[in-house]
Amino acid sequence: MNDPDVESLTRILAPRLRVLAEVARTEHVTRAAEALHMPQPTLSRALARFQEELGMALVERTGRGIRLTRAGRLLLPHVERALDDLRQGVAELTGAEEGRVALTFLPTLGVEVVPVLLRGFRAEHPGVRFTLTQEAWADSLRRLASGGADLALTSPLPSGPGLISAVLHTQYLRLVVPEHHPLADQGPVYLAPIRDEFILLKPGRGVRHLTDRLSDQAGFTPRVAFEADDIATARGLVAAGLGVSVLPARPKGPLAGTVELRLRDGDATRPVGVVWPQEGSGGGYEPPAVALFRDYVRRVGPEVIPDLTG
Hints:
The structure is a single chain. The chain is α/β, with parallel strands linked by helices. The chain is built from eleven helices and eleven strands. The chain folds into three domains: 6-94, Orthogonal Bundle (Arc Repressor Mutant, subunit A), CATH 1.10.10; 100-167 and 271-308, Periplasmic binding protein-like II (D-Maltodextrin-Binding Protein, domain 2, 3-Layer(aba) Sandwich); 170-270, D-Maltodextrin-Binding Protein, domain 2 (3-Layer(aba) Sandwich). Helix content is 44%, strand content 22%. The strands form three sheets. Strands 3, 4, 5, 6, 9, 10 and 11 form a seven-stranded mixed β-sheet that branches. The protein has a two-stranded antiparallel ribbon with strand order 1-2. The chain has a two-stranded parallel sheet with strand order 7-8. Helix 2 (15-26) crosses helix 5, helix 3 (29-35) packs across helix 4 and helix 7 (113-124) packs across helix 11 (288-308). The longest helix has 25 residues, at 70-94. It is rod-shaped, with a radius of gyration of 29 Å. Belongs to the LysR transcriptional regulatory family.
């Protein structure tokens, strides 16, 4: 597909609205036709068909010119608003600096990471607007796969068909225990011997998916004390002595009252990254603003996320 400008696409999508608006502006059929780059007879026929289909006159002759009838004057503001809305929609489809990005992201990334990325990007591209959705890992990937979002900032990253991902940062998973726990002074541990109750995140959360995978690999089923909505809550409940948990290492060091132990089990990591639909899915079209923001996230994200995640 070529890249026609906004006005060209607007003329393609709404020729009759453009005819009426231009006739109202010039009050002259020939000048309106010239402004619209069409033969005068073509414009006259289009205007006649428009009035015939509506069943009312929109213009009337005044000597050598024309003017809108009362019906035309009543309709004109709605026509102009429709054209403005259409221009904005076309600009969002074709313009890198005026587009809209639908972004879905994890709750943990919404505290600091997403605001930092948006603030930096909008400083460079203030015309780009965002539709934001904060939701759990599984919901985020479903939204992206169904076309409800352009990009996802999430973890872990999907491995199935239809979606592409880029790792921005990899966190290590730790067994988080209360500071007076018998294992608190020990080195790396395996999950299988742990007999404590676990504070897990609810199903559908990315960290829960990783914890379940590690548990399956270790061949044991954790005894669940509580299922939390988010990482911060799970970490706080461990500090209160209500159980242990598998969580990403905290960038600023363990939360007071907790100790973080290295895991010997499998791939105890949590990749954080950006995900987008594979080319050819979602209609096969990616607005320029989406590509611009994705490139920015891939460039800046690795510097931002390690200091703010978790």
